[in-house]
Design a protein that fits this description.
The complex is a heterodimer of chains A (about 240) and B (about 375).
Chain A: E1 6-15, E2 18-28, E3 33-38, H1 44-51, E4 59-64, E5 67-69, H2 74-79, E6 82-85, H3 97-101, H4 116-130, H5 146-160, E7 164-168, H6 176-188, E8 195-199, H7 203-209, E9 212-217, E10 220-226, H8 232-240
Parallel strand pairs in A: 3-8, 3-9, 6-7, 7-8
Antiparallel strand pairs in A: 1-2, 1-4, 4-5, 9-10
Helix pairs in contact in A: 5-6
Chain B: H1 22-27, H2 32-49, H3 57-82, H4 90-106, H5 112-137, H6 141-164, E1 168-169, H7 173-176, H8 182-186, E2 188-189, H9 191-200, E3 216-217, H10 218-236, H11 238-248, H12 250-255, H13 260-286, E4 289-290, H14 297-307, H15 319-339, H16 346-370
Antiparallel strand pairs in B: 1-4, 2-3
Helix pairs in contact in B: 2-15, 2-16, 3-10, 3-11, 3-13, 3-14, 3-15, 4-5, 4-6, 4-13, 5-6, 5-13, 10-11, 10-15, 14-15, 14-16
The chains are: A alpha/beta (about 240), B mainly alpha (about 375).
Chain lengths: ~240, ~375
């Protein structure tokens, strides 16, 4: 097996006098899905923001494919191959699916104009590969259901991520059937050899999807478990502080 | 209970991709309401004022000139509104740009071309300030530019009275007549084809035997060129995509690396420059400047843009729609004049027209959506 795609070691983040994250270390391998769980305020979102370049860590190091990186903003993280699927999805409602997939990174023709044909073709290919069920690449986002929107947001991340996708509560607002669809899409990312870090409040989902589970409690890393070698009771005990490490 | 998935199909088309019928695609266009409205008012005045000459060459150029003036503002205002912002200072900017051309010419002895470029530079800078304040403070642009609406008008009055002692300036023709820049704003084009059409009898002649019109005013050319430029910008360029994104979901756009702030500031500069163009045409055609010029133009432009199908909330709209909105405006204004109805009724009509157009637009859009 190759080395980890993402390697966090000794990450610490303080906001003024408040310590949000202390001494966090985690490796994510290509094709692996790691779940990040913890109670509200445990520091999960802060951690996502650190990995996606929004907040620089106060201490500790981040390495991508073994190369240490310093990311000063989100654009840099994207350039390095890290994509985030945000809770609010970050889609332009009135715009077509294909425009959203390429928003901010539109391909241009030789004349410097928008290359719509290429955007549409690549969108259709991707949507097919990921089996995202949308009516058409031309459909406007506002005409799609919540699950379809989430599918588009994940498709966009998949298209651009060469190394890592961060999913922040991808199914929080979805119904049962739609959640199942999104989970299928997330599972299909493994085949692409991309590392996935997912935040979820649903332990059922975590156990369905992940290879390993990392538990945070009040900014402290309680432990990492192989999903197969643990059970819900242990994870709940770790989340609530009944069990240390 | 035997259920086997045996729905093998030879059709290579993805069953999830359904072709959207052309008609419902057409109905979902933002311009539809404005085009329909334009046809409606054309037909209305053909019936009520058909014999009065509104559709003679002279009548057409008359209403097109009115439409053109408004349309020059409406196209950039449409882009700004699609980006989710308002510019209420456009009208005051016209007044300011007028005196920014008149004062250097009359009081400082500058050539007209330099005065016009000066006006563009100063107003462009004010547009930049508008944009910068909106983007940096996060205040609604409605408030920020409402402030500039008053400030610019006050500045215009104060400077004009301070320098010249009056609120109007005339006699600019004397200075502009031989300037190289004048034909670009107040000139006419297509004189030869117009004369030719007059000889053929297609364009009517006046009693003294001269053709009714001698050419197409430059303002109409500017209007069409600006509309085409804005449409091209919106639909063909990356910047255009950013305009839609900035208005639709600014946060999302920012997260994805779209320079939202820069996009918006650029558009504020653009509306300011359009106001200056409006003023330059007006000053050079009439030969005068007045501190009250441009009053209420900001709202007329918004009316044209909204009739044209652009959403007040941003993220959706078109420059072509704004062009038809401006066309309706011109036709109605001249049409009321030609029918002999008291022109006092014009504003009542335009206001009602706007509300009707918006209702129509949203009704049709919802219908088109449901048909999908």
């Amino acid at each position: 097996m190759t080395g980890p795609v993402l390697e966090l070691s000794g990450i610490r983040k303080t906001f003024g006098g408040v310590t949000a994250i202390e001494d966090f270390s985690l490796e994510i391998f290509p094709g692996e899905i790691v779940a990040l769980v913890g109670d509200n305020g445990a520091g999960k979102s802060t951690l996502i923001k650190i990995v996606s370049g929004v907040h620089p860590p106060s201490a500790g190091s981040i390495a991508l494919d073994g190369q240490p990186v310093v990311m000063s903003n989100a654009t840099m993280a994207r350039m390095l191959g890290i994509e985030v699927v945000y809770q609010d999805l970050a889609l332009a409602d009135q715009q077509a699916v294909y425009m959203n997939l390429f928003l901010g990174r539109e391909p241009l023709t030789a004349l410097g104009l928008l290359d719509r044909r290429r955007m549409i073709a690549e969108t259709e290919k991707l949507v097919k590969e990921l089996d995202v069920r949308i009516p058409s690449a031309h459909a406007a986002i506002r005409d799609l259901s919540g699950g379809q929107r989430q599918g588009v947001a994940i498709a966009r991340a998949t298209h651009w991520a060469s190394k890592l996708i961060l999913l922040d509560e991808p199914t929080a607002a979805l119904g049962v059937a739609e959640t199942a669809r999104v989970e299928e899409i997330v599972r299909s990312l493994k085949k692409r050899n991309i590392g996935v870090l997912i935040i979820s409040h649903s332990l059922d989902q975590v156990f369905r999807l992940s290879d390993r589970i990392c538990v945070l409690r009040r900014g402290k890393q309680i432990g990492v478990r192989d999903t197969k070698a643990t059970d819900k009771n242990e994870i709940i005990a770790m989340i609530t502080g009944l069990k240390q490490g | 209970m035997l259920e086997e998935p045996i729905h093998m199909t030879t059709d290579t088309r993805d069953e999830r991709v359904r072709a959207v019928p052309t008609l419902s695609r057409l109905l979902a266009r933002p311009e539809l309401g404005a085009v329909a409205g334009a046809l409606l008012v054309f037909a209305f005045f053909a019936v009520t004022a058909g014999g009065s000459g509104i559709y003679s060459a002279k009548g057409i150029v008359n209403f097109l000139e009115i439409s053109a003036q408004l349309g020059i503002l409406a196209a950039p205002v449409a882009l700004l509104m699609i980006a989710g912002e308002f510019d209420l200072s456009v009208g005051s900017m016209i007044g300011f740009a007028g005196i920014a051309i008149a004062i250097p010419t009359l009081a400082w002895g500058w050539p007209i071309w330099l005065a016009v470029l000066f006006a563009f530079a100063v107003c462009g800078f004010f547009g930049y300030l508008n944009g910068l304040i909106v983007v940096k403070t996060g205040l609604p642009s409605f408030i920020v530019t409402l402030g500039s609406l008053f400030m610019l008008r006050g500045l215009t009055l104060g400077i004009m009275r301070g320098v010249t002692g009056r609120t109007q300036a005339s006699g600019l023709h004397e200075y502009s007549r031989d300037d190289w820049i004048t034909p670009f704003f107040s000139g006419q084009v297509l004189r030869t084809p117009v004369a030719w059409l007059a000889d053929l009898g297609i364009i009517g002649k006046r009693a003294d035997g001269l053709p009714m019109i001698t050419g197409i005013p430059m303002s109409i050319i500017w209007w069409i060129a600006l509309t085409l430029f804005c449409t091209w910008l919106l639909t063909r360029t990356r910047f255009g995509n950013w305009i839609f994104a900035a208005g639709g979901e600014a946060n999302a756009a920012r997260n994805l690396g779209v320079p939202v702030a820069r996009t918006k500031i650029t558009l504020f500069v653009f509306t300011a420059l359009a106001a200056t163009l409006f003023a330059a045409i007006q000053v050079l055609v009439t030969g005068s400047a007045d501190t009250l010029r441009g009053n209420l133009k900001e709202f007329e432009a918004i009316i044209a843009v909204v009739i044209g199908g652009t959403l007040l909330t941003g993220g959706y709209g078109s420059a072509i729609g704004a062009m038809f909105g401006a066309l309706i405006f011109g036709v109605v204004q001249m049409g009321i004049f030609y029918t002999g109805i008291d022109t006092d009724w014009f504003k009542l009509f335009m206001g009602a027209m706007m509300v009707t157009a918006v209702l129509f637009n949203s009704y049709v859009r919802n219908r088109a959506m449901r048909n999908r």
